[in-house]
Amino acid sequence: MKIAMLAPISWRTPPRHYGPWEWVVSMLTEGLIRRGIDVTLYATGDSQTRAVLRSVAPRPWSEDSDLEPKVWECLHIAAVFEEAASFDLIHNHFDFLPLTYSGLVNTPVLTTIHGFSSPRILPVYRKYNQRVNYVAISDADRSPELDYRATIHHGIPIDNYAYRENADNYLLFFGRIHHDKGVYESIRLAKQAGMPLVIAGIIQDQTYFDRYVAPYLDEEQVRYIGPVGSGEKGAVLGGARALLHLINFDEPFGLSVAESMACGTPVIAFRRGSMPELVIDGITGYLVDDLDQAREALSRIDKLQRKACRRHVEESFTVELMVDRYIKVYQDIIN
Asked: Which residue of 32, 44, 102, 144 pairs with 109 in a disulfide if CB–CB is 3.0 to 4.6 A?
């Protein structure tokens, strides 16, 4: 079985800090290599992999303003389809644009839909619904207008996340600084509860940060530590009493939620999108509908067993489980 893995090029594969799609591609690619599957990874030139690396863009366009994203993305996508005959299957993680190339090749294409940035992109997915195979990353993110091969939840390398039985006394926000992710809501909850809050993540919306985050930073109760690399994640996540995930959108998945639970840290999340598929309410965290419920849930956070959080990830969200499920889909499509 020869697989062409098409990664985005906004960030390196794997990313240095932020880059969830590239991170999932890396975990899947390396997991397939461990199973002896022949994978060629199409990613940025500075990517790190044990697969055969094909690159057009030398660096991620998010890290190099001299690279025009549309130009390098077009060249990058074209590269894999120009070599399509060399593979049994092309696995696309690059959103909707590669679908428009699928009718030009005979090689089957599988697209993992990492979420819909807008309903306006659905016409592309509808047009290629019978030609391209789709995988959803959660049941919540399935469109009723499309057909899917499977729902495959993301998996994480659980051995990279040390379990912490005893947490420190702080709450944690872990994700991009943007209205969607609920940073301001996390600050409000921490203020109401009188507990320290650590904020970690890239600033995706500077205006939002300046208005809703920066005024509350005091280096005592509310502290911003910037983006956290893979080597530091476990310590930051594992030390928290709870991860606050008070999202303002229907999130397709939520890697930080799985990562947090892997360390033993329970999650307080708004009941939106995929959160009911990730968090077992009353066992690995609490699903709430507003800040009042979140504050009440926080008062009960220490009643949860941190071992149950770890066990849930071991049983549901590991890289090996993700790899198993994708291999089955590959075989079904190729056969």
From this structure: 102
